[in-house]
Amino acid sequence: MSRQKKSVRKGTIVRLLKMLMGYFPKLLPAIILLIIVNAVISSIPSVFQQKVIALIQEAWEKQRTWEETRPAIMRNVAVLAALYLCSLAAGFAFNQLMAVLTQGTLAKLRDEMFCHMETLPIRFFDTHKRGDIMSYYTNDVDAMRQMISQSFPQLLVSLISVTTILCIMMYYSCWMGMVIILGSFLSIHITRVVGGKSARYFMAQQKYVAGVEGVVEEMINGGKVIKVFNHEEEAERIFDQANEELYEAAYNANRYSNTLMPILNNVSYIIYVLVAVTGGLLIEFNVRNVSFSGLPISIAVVVPFLGMSRQFAGMIQQISPQINSIVMGIAGAERIFAMLDEAPEADDGYVTLVHATEKNGVLTETDEHTELYAWKHPHQADGTITYTKVRGDIRFFDVDFAYQPDKMILHNITLYGKPGQKIAFVGATGAGKTTITNLINRFYDIEDGKIRYDDININKIKKGALRRSLGIILQETVLFTGTVMENIRYGRLEATDEECIAAAKLAGAHSFIKHLPQGYDTMLDGDGSNLSQGQCQLLAIARAAVADPPVMIMDEATSSIDTRTEQIVQRGMDALMAGRTVFVIAHRLSTVKNSNVILVLDHGRIIERGTHEELIAKKGQYYQLYTGAFELE
Amino acid sequence: MRQLSGSVREFGKPAVLTPVFVVGEVIFEAVIPYMIALLVNDIKAGCGIEVILRYALILIVMSLASLLFGYLAGMTCARASCGFAKNLRHDVFYRIQEFSFSNIDRFSAASLVTRLTTDIQNIQMAFMMIIRTAIRAPLNLIMSFAMAYYMGGSMALIFLLVIPILAIGLYTVARITMPLFRSGFPKYDALNESVEENIKGIRVVKSFVREDYETEKFHTASENIRKIFTKAERILALNSPMMQICIYGVMLFVLSVGSRQIISTNGQALDIGQFSTLLTYSFQILSSLMMLSMIFVMITFSAESAGRVCEVLSEESTIRNPENPVRKIEDGSIDFDDVSFKYTSDAEDLVLEHINLHIRSGETIGIIGGTGSSKSSLVQLIPRLYDASEGVVRVSGRDVRSYDLEVLRDSVAMVLQKNVLFSGTVAENIRWGNKDATDDEVKHVCRLACADEFIDQMPDGYETHIEQGGTNVSGGQKQRLCIARALLKQPRILILDDSTSAVDTRTDAKIRRAMKEYIPSTTKIIIAQRTSSVEDADRIIVLDNGKIDAIGTSEELLASNRIYQEVYYSQNHQEADEAGISSLQEVTA
Q1: Neighboring chain B residues of A220 at a CB cutoff of 8 Å
Q2: Does residue A405 sit within a domain?
Q3: Which of A246, B14, B29, B532 fits as disulfide partner to B76, beta carbons 3.0 to 4.6 Å?
Q4: Which of 98-137 (B) contact A at CB < 8 A?
Q5: So what's the pLDDT on residue B589?
Q6: β-strands A597-602, A422-427: how paired?
Q7: Digit-coded pLDDT (tens) for B429-438
């Protein structure tokens, strides 16, 4: 189990590196090279420092004057200065390139994620919580940034330095090297214990932060209700409890993270002392040295070791915090890759939607925006192309559907939506009204049966073309951040201002838009919070109107808006429906009454169908409900 | 700042102890390298194991002491900063609970949530830095410099040259990058919001086949952010070469000038051990400077958060309890004597103008009027959710401002138009009205509000869990639960502010009938869009533009009032439709 997990991790790292390489085929190798060069260069100066110190010592012992030693020292200092310059240049280049690489990677990654997300089927969005998808873009990308910009280079540098120093240590003395290595293991162990605890508590803290957030959100959004019910003390009690939990978790998390550094720092001093003591003991008892150089233990061996022990400890201190962030970064990368691996919406359709002109009954394709749409149908068998007029004729033949294979939602749905007809769906929540409309635009694919659009199986129509030919008004209006004009133009990007305004007039939105502070240029928040619900609906109608599709799917809003606005919305809807095939999930009887066909749905089956008059005359379920309501009056 | 420090309270002790421990830690940290220098010198001089062991003992004691101080500082710092944040959250939340409706209106709910979470989190981080790192870094700098001077003498003066140069450099970088980050972060937030918008509106995006368009839009925004952040990070990346230049400079200086001093003075002014320790100190001094520049940036960022939190703390509630409040309300009569009202004192237009109105105890009053006719504003004055700007509102013959707020609001139950349920069971939600109510009482009010029928059908009946915001019940069900909740208060006055709009007309009528039968002595005020909801009221008030247009029974108004006629007839050709279809759904549900 854990081995499997490990190999997944390995796979993730490889994939991550491949991805980086793909993004920056030149920059990445350059950066890696710079890191190595930098690591090597920065370990050389200590050699020359040592040389200078040795020269001083020699001069001191042999009572040489400054003038005598000066040339030798200055020569070394000059070499050192040159090395510093190289290191500076490499460091500078590395830092600059790294900034470009990090931000570039994040931008490309975000683009790739978003681009991929847009291709995913509706099922993905129905089965993943919005907050979870958002956290790919926020938390996970953040974790990756940390890993790419800091942890990876840091780790690489440290690994090179550690290896170099390790080799040098073995060159001088294995005994003393052992002391340092043991000390390092101790440091790493402390980091794992203390750091692990800290990480665990930070995770817990995250949970309690969410808890406090939940309480706060609920209590503040319900602030007015709390006032009305004198419930302040109760709210405070609930809040205090969540707050106390958060405090405990936050305290524990910070306690461990705050104390890690002082512990490691002082442990490194203790190791230093141990190295010195070991050295002293080795000399004192004249222990035989084990080393690659074959040098006997002497002061000349012990002193450099003292320096190296500090350097080594410094490395360990630098790597330790990176390990946590690498673990988190990989976990983030795994989640992001999982999303990128989600299969995009499949589209095997080949019939496309084009504008056309008609002359003597012959359709010709055109680039202009004409009133007439045509299906362009290439035939693979003989390579010919035929054009058929888009009429808006939609038929279901024995359609079955299930979201999950074992749980059928729709059974044997057969219906005919002839051009210009209005088909109303009536039924309880969960009867399958919305599901049917989701099949028409192929948000979901049917299990069995057939859906034909102008006599073409909709599976043969390219999804984009199919959806362009279908207008949709959802129950809950979604607008996008941008101006009013941009929101209307969303229906057809090439629409002129005049066309958008005409659509707004048709929808009955023009009069309120005129009264907005900047008219059509007024900026809207994403959730349309600066507009009333009714106004949002009017904009959605205008948006659909500018697209001017032959078929409309509408889900009437149930929410109550004041009678006046409701009438305006109703008029807008009516204007939009005129002359189109319309599928409407009806919540108002006026809509139902005016429909050509009413389909009464119950548990995924059509239980009654007909016009209002027919259904009343039939005296079935529809009639009973309808007349039952009349007893009220 | 002073306002915030008031929240330290019981965590004052750790907050003061932290810097004390930090001082101890820093002193040992500065002395240890010096001891090490002495040790190195003695080892080089060929001292025996006894000397080494003596040093070892001293050093181990010192590092254990330093460890202890560091550990204690870390602990107290964590306690002080987390505790401070806890108290601050507590204070802000309690302050918000004191807010009146007009205070709540002034801040949006979302902004209050951010202040309580993200902003206080930032302040906690800054506080942690201030009591620990902000003490540690300069102290470390001073101590290291002192030690360097003590050992290196005049050589340490090089730092007097290097420190200001580096300080200016770091400060400049911080000053240049800060505005970049400040303009970048909101853009980054906006980008994430646009992702969220896309997830929410994916059906619209796909219906209009706008995937490419959205991707292009996203790419432009993302590219913009990349440019800003790359620029900022590239400037920020200058810090490390700057640091390197200084360290290398010091090294070269020390090596060339220092070696001359050692040799020409024959090791008297500076010996070799001190020489290498000087390099350690130079590193400590410069990294302290780096730390300081980081603190500077952090504190500047969190100052904005502190400002936002203070804004809430200094907001005074506009409605307060009177000095000697009246604690009993005799009956449910209501009087408006020449009442005018506007939401803020600097608003130009009056929302209500010269309202005179007298309601007898036990009367049922309907209120009708278009959007913006101030129906809600009128009734919100009764339980003092807002105070009248002019004139007097009386309940049971007394000015509402003379009552104890809690008593007043307990006697005047109001079902708000924008109502919410809270996470918890159905019964828990109903008991908001009276937490000591028996199960039978709870069931009784649910029956009155016609909520019993659907509660009984829920999987766990009254113990069914309601999700946050009541997302797992329908609009009509939510409204009925809210009415039941208000009924449980057994109020003298019951106000329904458009509270049955999502309930079908038949159930609506049933609820009204139940109220008439079971709580006849309670004054009932019903605001509605539908005339059918108020038709059987004793009197109906027609509001228009903040003024009373007419008062009378439905018949009287139908005969004489133009607005009422309009609303009545516009609805009544639809009325049958609405009634039909809503019951169509309710019954099949």
Answers
A1: 96, 109, 112-113, 116
A2: no
A3: B14
A4: 98-101, 104, 109, 112-113, 116-117, 121, 124, 128, 132
A5: 37
A6: parallel
A7: 999 988 899 9
